[in-house]
């Protein structure tokens, strides 16, 4: 700190100190009436200023010394038009103070004033000049930590303090398939290992809620939701509308899902009248209701026989079903409710269709000619459906232009488009196959209505069964009742000889890695090898367990969700296509999902808040890299904004919609300086965005450096 005598007050710490005396002297009369006395203001005898040039937020020590010509006591006061003053330390003839610079300061500003006043009210002031230069080269971006970001979506902060783009999260349960953010979802056909013919699609859960099929219990979690029986006839409305079972009149009547009924025959069971199911009636709509003796499908009762109502029929084994076993919608052998919305189902369909036919075999037949589209090739099984998948869109409609005519490798993958975050998906498998009610083989007829004790009081006999990924929605009972329903070692080869009920003693079972548990395999070796090829993203299944949980309502689950711990993004669904579970291998139809979602990271505000400043220029430097072999693929884009917070008295909160300014940066390492004075904001942050891609080619941001300049603004 430098002291200066009164004769040197023009130069203080290398700068200019302005002295402002009281505007006029004071006059006073003597007691005897003599001439008025002249009172003089205090005189500054010294001043000091530790620095005139400060970095934003820097501090300077200030002091003044003064005397009063009349010898009266002095008082000192300090004021600042910008920046922040500390607590003054005063003596009889001096005062010292600390001043903290603002984030910016107008040129030639004298923001601090010290005033000394004597007992006669006369004062002298000194003004202290400062400058707060801006330096774009200073990096204001701290090392990357999760706490340094307002949001990280599909972006991970690594231990090396880099930003790695990540694949979107995958579901962990077939019973609740929902994504946190929007993502582009692709489905790839893996294998079909069954004598049945299938159609595969999905519905949005909230569409069924809106239609009134689901009681949400007033909670956002679907785990406690139940299916509704609004007409009180014992059959859940969803199941009733799948097969058109509601009567055409009376208190239990429901709107028909479709244009008009093919069959009008009805039946009475349990004191209620129902319509006979068109999907289980022949071309002549011959009545197919009877009462027969069947084994009880409840666990622990499978040795008990009882008389029970059964409705529906199987197709004749030697002839084509022609117009029979159809509800006359967009696709006759698909429940109208699961079809895409179309005039053919009176615009009441809720589904989207992924694969119209899952056959991948040596012949050109679909099961009993019940396939939605014909099997068009007898080529060896190769993981490609036996029809031209690309000819059809998700609505089941023939495209105006087929992007890939013929049956090619491209037909194994279907792009579902963007699945909105927060919208739950329920996948379904419609299976054309006939099986007996034989609990010794693990097969049962679907159950339409249950008594309070869980015993089925009305069975459905049909060649067309519907299985949902959400187990509680299925119609068939689980005759075994094991918990979990099934377990498989996903990295072990499937073998017919492996006993899933006693894998510890089965020679073909494999030990789950890191445990002593043995489980039977899931997929055969050819299919597992197929998954390792580039067409499937090189998926190698580890020796780990995958389980099918029991739903808790006595129904049979039919979907196994597999999310290998060694793979960051793909997940799989394997279906069991026999009512009652059959062999419970969950490999009758298998698909692989790959989610592609964009990545975004938004930094927190980089500059301290100061309402007297606005960000005028920003220097932004970044380095991003792609993994080897991914050269030429997109890298992140970058933006800055200067209104990233919204501030009020005593608080600041993130602005959900700041005004972003794109930065023209090249891939790799690049630097750009942009003028943002037109944005007039004082809360700077930055954002990166990446469109997403295959997990093996996602980029990493190794460094970001941000500098800025602030300009003083009028209050």
Structural commentary:
Helix content is 3%, strand content 35%. It is mainly beta and 715 residues long. It folds into 4 domains: 6-130, Immunoglobulins (Immunoglobulin-like), CATH 2.60.40; 146-166 and 599-712, Jelly Rolls; 188-473, no CATH class; 486-548, no CATH class. The strands form 14 sheets. Strands 6, 7, 9, 10 and 11 form a 5-stranded antiparallel beta sheet that branches. A 5-stranded antiparallel beta sheet has the order 14-39-46-41-44, with no helix packed on it. Strand 12 and strand 13 form a beta hairpin. It is elongated, with a radius of gyration of 39 Å. The two termini are 32 Å apart. Mean pLDDT is 92; it is low at 1-16 and 28-34.
Uncertain stretches of 5 or more adjacent residues: 1-16, 28-34
Task: Give the beta-strand count.
Answer: 47
The helix fraction, in percent, is under 10%
Structural class category: mainly beta
Mean pLDDT: 92
How many domains? The number is 4
Tally the helices.
3
* Beta-strand content: 25-35%
Largest sheet, if any?
5 strands, antiparallel
End-to-end distance = 32 Å
Task: Specify the overall morphology.
Answer: elongated
Radius of gyration: 39 Å
């Amino acid at each position: 700190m430098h002291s200066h005598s009164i004769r040197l007050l023009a130069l203080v710490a290398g700068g200019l100190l302005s002295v402002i005396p009281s505007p006029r002297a004071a006059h006073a009369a003597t007691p005897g009436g003599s001439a008025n006395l002249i009172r003089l203001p205090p005189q500054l005898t010294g001043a000091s200023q530790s620095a005139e040039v400060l970095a934003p937020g820097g501090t300077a020590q200030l002091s003044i010394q003064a005397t009063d010509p009349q010898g009266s006591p002095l008082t000192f006061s300090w004021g600042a038009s910008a920046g922040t003053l500390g607590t003054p330390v005063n003596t009889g003839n001096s005062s010292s103070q600390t001043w903290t610079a603002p984030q910016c300061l107008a040129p030639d500003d004298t923001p601090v004033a010290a005033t000394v006043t004597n007992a006669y009210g006369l004062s002298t002031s000194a003004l202290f000049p400062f400058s707060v230069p801006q330096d774009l080269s200073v990096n204001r971006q701290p090392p990357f930590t999760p706490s340094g970001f307002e949001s990280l979506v599909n972006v991970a902060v690594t231990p090396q303090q880099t930003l790695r783009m990540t694949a979107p999260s995958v579901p962990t349960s077939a019973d609740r398939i929902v994504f946190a953010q929007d993502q582009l979802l692709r489905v790839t056909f893996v294998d079909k290992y069954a004598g049945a013919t299938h159609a595969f699609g999905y519905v949005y859960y909230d569409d069924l809620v809106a239609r009134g099929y689901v009681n949400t219990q007033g909670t956002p979690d679907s785990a406690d939701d139940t299916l509704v029986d609004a007409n009180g006839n014992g059959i859940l409305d969803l199941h009733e509308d799948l097969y058109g079972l509601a009567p055409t009149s009376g208190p239990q009547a429901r709107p028909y899902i479709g244009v008009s009924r093919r069959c009008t025959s009805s039946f009475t069971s349990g004191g209620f009248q129902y319509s006979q199911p068109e999907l289980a009636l022949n071309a002549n709509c011959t009545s197919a209701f009877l009462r027969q003796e069947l084994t009880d499908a409840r666990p622990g009762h499978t040795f008990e026989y009882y008389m029970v109502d059964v409705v529906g029929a199987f197709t004749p084994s030697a002839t084509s079903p022609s117009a029979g076993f159809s509800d006359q919608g967009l696709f006759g052998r698909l429940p109208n409710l699961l079809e895409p919305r179309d005039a053919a189902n009176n615009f009441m369909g809720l589904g989207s269709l992924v694969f119209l036919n899952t056959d991948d075999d040596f012949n050109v037949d679909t099961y009993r000619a019940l396939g939605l589209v014909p099997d068009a090739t007898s080529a060896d099984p190769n993981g490609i459906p036996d029809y031209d998948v690309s000819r059809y869109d998700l609505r089941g409609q023939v495209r105006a232009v087929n992007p890939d005519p013929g049956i090619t490798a491209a037909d194994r993958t279907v792009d579902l488009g963007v699945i909105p975050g927060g919208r739950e998906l329920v996948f379904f498998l419609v299976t054309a196959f006939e099986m007996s009610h034989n609990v010794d083989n693990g097969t049962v007829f679907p159950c339409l209505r249950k008594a309070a004790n869980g015993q089925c009081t009305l069975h459905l006999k049909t060649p067309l069964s519907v299985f949902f990924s959400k187990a509680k929605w299925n119609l068939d009972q689980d005759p075994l009742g094991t918990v979990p329903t099934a377990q498989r070692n996903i990295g072990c080869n499937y073998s017919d000889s492996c006993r899933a009920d006693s894998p510890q003693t089965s020679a073909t079972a494999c030990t789950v890695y890191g445990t002593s548990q043995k489980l039977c395999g899931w997929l055969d070796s050819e299919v597992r090898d197929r998954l390792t090829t580039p067409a499937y993203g090189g998926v190698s299944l580890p020796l780990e367990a995958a389980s099918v949980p029991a739903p808790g309502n006595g129904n049979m689950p039919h979907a196994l969700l597999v999310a290998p711990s060694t793979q960051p993004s793909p997940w799989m669904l394997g279906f069991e296509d026999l009512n009652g579970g059959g062999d419970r291998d969950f490999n009758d139809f298998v698909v692989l999902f790959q989610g592609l979602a964009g990545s975004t990271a938004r930094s927190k505000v980089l500059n301290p808040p100061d309402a007297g400043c606005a960000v005028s220029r920003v220097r932004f430097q970044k380095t991003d890299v792609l993994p080897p072999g991914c050269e030429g693929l997109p890298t992140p884009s970058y933006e800055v904004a200067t209104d990233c917070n919204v501030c009020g008295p005593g608080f600041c909160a993130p602005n959900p919609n700041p005004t972003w300014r794109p930065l023209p940066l090249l891939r790799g390492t690049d630097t750009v300086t942009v003028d943002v004075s037109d944005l007039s904001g004082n809360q700077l942050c930055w954002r990166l965005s990446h469109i997403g891609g295959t997990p093996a080619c996602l980029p990493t941001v190794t460094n970001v450096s941000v500098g800025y300049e602030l300009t003083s603004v009028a209050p």
